[in-house]
Amino acid sequence: MPPAVRNIAIIALVALAIVAIPGGGTAADLVVAVISLAFLATIAFFAQRMYMENRLTLWSLTTAHRALLYGGLALAFATLVATSRLMATNAGTLAWILLLAAAGGSVFYVWNESRRYRV
Q1: With bands split at pLDDT 50, 70 and 90, how would you rate the model's confidence at 49?
Q2: Per-domain boundaries in the chain
């Protein structure tokens, strides 16, 4: 049996078990929650690791640039947290796009300014 057919059969069996077994949907919700928490923990670990490796670079930024960088990151985080509420309406979707663009623009601006050589 080819591996692709085997993998599809495994997925079909898992889906059948979720549908057929009582409480299967609850178990599936639990698995999704555990995977989501593991993903968030990985992101937090990566962020902490990046901060520890680039402390000198971050502290060599001016106070205004550092505030703009942290503000942009906080705006992106708050926007991603509010995604489900913002995506409920068309205006919210537009606001979501604009907020993430503003956050990305501020981080890009700080990165660009940190690379600029000034005497």
Answers
A1: very high
A2: 1-49, 54-119
CB 113 within 8 A of CB 65: yes
Write the burial class of residue 90 (CB in 10 Å: 0-12 exposed, 13-18 middle, 19+ buried): exposed
Dist. CA 94–CA 112, nearest whole Å: 26
Q: What is the pTM of this model?
A: 0.69
Provide the token pair at 101: 């663009």
